[in-house]
Amino acid sequence: KMEWLNGIVRPEILKLAAYSSARSEMGDLSGMIQMDANENPYIPYPQSIEVSKANRYPDPQPIALLARLAAIYGVKNDQILVARGMDEIIDLIIRVFCIAYKDKILITPPTYGMYQVAADTAGVEVVKVALSEEDGFEFPHAKIIATAKAEKVKIVFLCTPNNPTGNIISLDKIEAIAKSLPQAIIAVDEAYIEFADTESAASLLKDYPNLVTMKTLSKAYGFAGVRIGSLLAHPDIITVSRKVLAPYPLPEPCVRLAHQLLSPLGLQLVHSRTEILKAERERMLEVLRQLPGIEEVYPSKANFILFKVENGGKIYKDVLAKGIVIRNRAKDVANTLRISIGTPEENNLVLAALGAKLDNLA
Ligand code: PMP
Q1: Domain holding 125: CATH number?
Q2: Cα–Cα distance measured from residue 35 to residue 23, given in angstroms and rounded to the nearest whole number
C-alpha cells in the first residue's frame, strides 16, 4: 500500500510494528473499567478537577485537538499529528526518513539550530547551502535543488520566515523545490508564519506528497510553555511517523489548555495580539533604521528583528546591564544582534537602551 515510500522512509521503520495499547487500539476508554495499562486507580492529591485524569495515560493522539488544529491549519484530520513542540517533530522526521551514517539532510544557514542538532544526534550528515547576506538572505532555490540532487539528500529543511534572518521563501520556490526533488522530503518550518501574511505550504500538500509542513503553538499562539507542535503531511507519512513517535507525547492537562486557547475567544485574542506584534515590528524596524550606530536592519516577517552593528558584543552587554536580554547572533551572521518583539512598553525600553530618543517616538 505504502509502496511510494520505499526508498524514502527508512526500511526498518516501514516494517516496524507500532507499539500497541488498549488506548491506541480502542480509542477513548472513559466510562469503562480500565484495567489494561497498569495504571493506579486512585486520583492523586489534591483530587481536584485538574488532576482528575492524572492517573490515566492520555490519548496517544487526542482526536478533538487534532480536528481543531487540522481545521485551523487547513488540512484533513488524517494529515496531522501532534507532539511536544516542533522540536520533537524535527527530531521525529529525521528518525523516520534518515538512515544513520548514510543519509544526509540539507539546511540553509543561517537558520534554526535544531536541524543540525537533531541530525548530529542521529548520525545524519548535514549538507549546507548558505543564504548570503549580499542577496538579503534570499533562498537560492536553484542551488538548493542542484545540491540536494548531487548529494542525494533525504530531507530539505526550509524555514519560513527564517530564524534568525526574518525573510520568507515564496510558495513558488517551495513548490519548485518539492517538484524537482520527488525522492526527498521537503520539510517546511512555519514556526513564525502567523506573523508573515503569507500562505502556508500546507496548501501544496495535495499536489506534493513529499512535502511536509511543521507548525507550533509556541510563537503567535503564545503557548511555548505547553509544548505543542504539529506535523502536517500525507496520511501515509502520518501513519509511519506515529509508529516512531513516543506512545503518549502530549500530557492531558496540556491538551485541555490547548482547547481553551483554540476556543473562539482564545483565537480572537491570539489574532489581536498578533496584529499588535506585527505593528510593533514595523515600528521597531523604522526606529532601528534611524538609529546611529546601526549599520543595517534586515526586513522581517517574523516576531524578531536582526540588525547589524559595529560592536555587537559591547551593545549586547550594555543592553544586558539594563536588565534586557537580547541575542548576539555574531556566530551566524557577523556583528548582528536579534531582538524579539515584546510589548510596546518592553520595546520602548530596548529601543531606549539602544539609544533611541523615546520622546521623539510619539
Ligand atoms: N522552528 C523555529 C524556526 C524556531 O525558532 C523554534 C523555536 N525557537 C522552533 C522551531 C521550535 O518550536 P517549539 O517550541 O514548537 O519546539
Answers
A1: 3.40.640.10
A2: 11
